[in-house]
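Moderator note: this is an archived Q&A kept for reference. The question asked for a predicted structure of one protein chain; the sequence and the answer are reproduced below.
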Amino acid sequence: MDDIVTRPAEEISREELYELVWQTPMSKLGAQLATNGPGLAALCRKRQIPTPPLGYWQKKAVGRAPEMPLLPSFEPPQKTSPSIKPARGSGKPQVPASVPSRDAESVAELPPFDEDDESLDHMRALHPKVKAWVAEHRQLQESRRAENRQRSRDFWGGSLPHISDLTARDRYRFRVTSTLFRAIEKQGGQIGEAKLTGKVTFLVNEQELKCVIAEKMSRATKIMEGAGKWTAFPHHHQTGLVSSGFLRVRFDTYVNGRNRDWIETSKKKMAIIQPDIVSAIIAAEPLLAEAAREREERHRRYEQEQAERRERQMT
């Protein structure tokens, strides 16, 4: 179990925690999640996660355990307005001072975007390289479900983290990337290696340009139910950071001594920035070719100097 779960319970998604508490007794699981059984049970109640009833594990040991109930959708508790009392001697209501939150940002806090933007490729008509990412994600989900089913047959087996469905942010990144790929190909470029993480290699007249198309991350400021649900691939990102709600395109290959970087804003989305990115990628070819020639020339001169040095030592 030590090599399965290593994070505090508060950092685990609701779906994953639901899977875990139905695979391992909370008295044992709590120790792995930096808490204890009662603390874990309280967290499950707070997050509206059903837990195994009394006697469940004894019944499971003999193959008579009841089926896991479905995980209900989370319903945020209704907030009651705090009573505002007049300040003593003033006759005016005393408004309580706001207290800054210290939790992780939720999906609801992300900037809005048009998921039906017709200027982007549709999810049903993605570029083949991006379509392969969708297939890879589905395969990962099925493999994880199959492995957890196998583990559930072992009394001492613990489940592995649940792999969520693609989120709106994931789908948006896929569509933007697909649209960019097609625009590059129309300009005569090619798509080389393209990883699910967003790391891409463009090929322009045999010159390689490495690029990253990913979320612009920011520090977590608020924690609310649903936090961390902005992506199905949290392990692709640094712990403690969340999506800013905007995409970023960055050159990892230095062109003319610098690496370019584009970040969308609420007023300037990737569909608007894309032509500039495509132009920069195509225009990078002669600069990269010249840089390659300079490297080859430096290497040639170095080899020549080394040969001359060895010749002098021999005479």
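Archived answer notes: Confidence is low (pLDDT under 50) at residues 95-108, 223-227.
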